[in-house]
Design a protein that fits this description.
Length: 433
């Protein structure tokens, strides 16, 4: 592939390569059922995932008593953040989906990561005759079952949060766990995992390399299971369940979504699994009335690069001269999931990229206006409505949003933050780039 040619032929690739802030609208977006062309995943798959999570609720309560109040459901609040909306001048209603405060993992990874580990656990439990599928799964927390799980290993490559989610959950169930951490991963995340008995293997290289090594080592061990963030359909389905829960929350708040009240959702994107799964679920439920935008750092816009070039996982940000290095550690991914890029082809509204310095500003503004702390990676979401409302006229007009923009419901997806230790928060609060 000739990168220079690609850059010359396409203005957006040139902007990406210069690490400029981008606003990109997906030229391949389709309406109606056309959005789903090229994917075999269905609503039924999402509902099966939801039922599986329900089956595990009693077990989750056993392992994590903090989830008892919610009946073993791992779900986050949806908060109206009017003062922040005024500060950012987004218009319409601005809501924050607080996956930053999800139980167990303190990030969006509590959805996909935990779901995949539970599914794997169900498979092992059924294979070993530990349960039948109509029994109370709380039984799986008993010592005889843990004894069986301890013979199995779970491995994952991570920039940090996926490792926390997989590591904490797998260790709680009784598996041996190895987390392959890229150079971006924060020390406190490694420390926290080690304190739970997880083996942390550190790499000097980036996320893609940590994944590659982890996969290789796992493949050599027949008792080891590798959580593949780049290609896993299970992870994706775990994330997609969020859409059903969000719909119920909107209904509970009497917020109507229809063609006169469009829903605009902004999700920080790394390899693509979390935002992709959520976007997919939302499109299934709200169709053409929802518009989903991903947000990435200017130095690691891997999904934008993959989708805009059409090359998906065949291209990485280093190919166009970017470093892949960013303060947004959860988004420090150089090569996108090809699986997610293909599913998003007809349904993603667009992408926004953001400078690292703004993440800290948004973080301080949110704390100041709403008293809510979320981590820098998660703050990328705020660049979505800001940029769209400022420079997105054309998209808003073409999709019939402009005349009803005052009725729009904007949701920024806060993807992480609750587990960040106090001293690191203070450090973030004093970071000015
Ligand atoms: C992992 C993560 C994301 C993005 O998820 P991907 O599946 O990597 O795209 C966003 N924000 C935070 C805080 C994360 O940890």
């Amino acid at each position: 592939m000739d990168i220079q040619k690609l850059i010359q032929k396409d203005g957006i690739i040139e902007k990406i390569a210069k690490a400029e802030e981008c606003l990109w609208f997906n030229p391949n977006i389709k309406t109606g059922s056309g959005s789903f062309e090229g994917t075999a995943i269905t609503m039924d798959d999402i509902e099966k995932a939801e039922r599986r999570l329900d089956r595990f609720a009693s077990f989750i309560m056993q392992c994590f008593p903090e989830t008892i109040a919610d009946g073993g459901l791992i779900e986050s609040p949806l908060a109206e953040i009017q003062a922040m909306g005024q500060r950012l001048d987004t218009g319409g209603r601005l809501l924050l989906k607080l996956d930053s405060h999800l139980a167990i993992a303190g990030s969006v990874k509590a959805r996909g990561g935990i779901y995949e580990i539970l599914k794997h656990t169900e498979d092992i439990a059924l294979q070993n005759g530990l349960i039948s599928s109509d029994e109370d799964y709380a039984k799986l927390a008993e010592p005889e079952c843990r004894q069986v799980f301890s013979k199995y290993t779970v491995q994952v490559g991570s920039t940090g949060n996926l490792g926390l989610s997989i590591g904490i959950m797998s260790a709680a169930i009784g598996y041996r766990v190895k987390v392959h951490m890229s150079a971006d991963a924060k020390q406190w995340k490694k420390d926290l995992l080690r304190s739970k008995g997880v083996e942390v293997i550190e790499y000097q290289s980036d996320y893609s390399e940590a994944v590659k090594q982890g996969r290789r080592l796992s493949d050599m061990d027949p008792m080891s299971y590798f959580v593949d963030d780049e290609n896993s359909v299970d992870l994706f389905l775990g994330y997609a369940v969020a859409a059903k829960r969000l719909k119920a929350q909107l209904e509970g708040m009497q917020i109507v979504i229809d063609s006169r009240h469009p829903l605009l959702v902004y999700i920080p994107c790394g390899v693509g699994g979390a935002p992709g799964g959520i976007a997919f679920g939302l499109k299934k439920l709200f169709g053409d009335n929802v518009h989903v935008f991903f947000v990435e750092p200017v130095q690691a816009p891997c999904m934008l690069l993959g989708m805009a070039s059409g090359l998906n996982q065949e291209i990485c940000v280093q190919d166009v001269g970017l470093t892949g290095i960013t303060h947004a550690d959860g988004l420090a991914v150089g090569r996108p999931s090809g699986f997610v890029g293909r599913v998003m082809k007809g349904m993603l509204a667009g992408e926004v990229t953001v400078e690292d310095s703004k993440l800290y500003d948004y973080m301080r503004q949110l704390l100041d206006t709403e008293g809510i702390f979320i981590e820098p990676s998660a703050c990328a979401a705020f660049e979505g409505p800001v940029r769209l409302c400022r420079d997105g006229r054309q998209y808003l007009a073409e999709h019939g949003i402009e005349p009803v923009i005052d009725n729009a419901v904007h949701i920024c997806w806060a993807t992480g933050g609750a587990l960040v230790p106090e001293e690191i928060r203070r450090e973030y609060m004093n970071t000015y780039l």
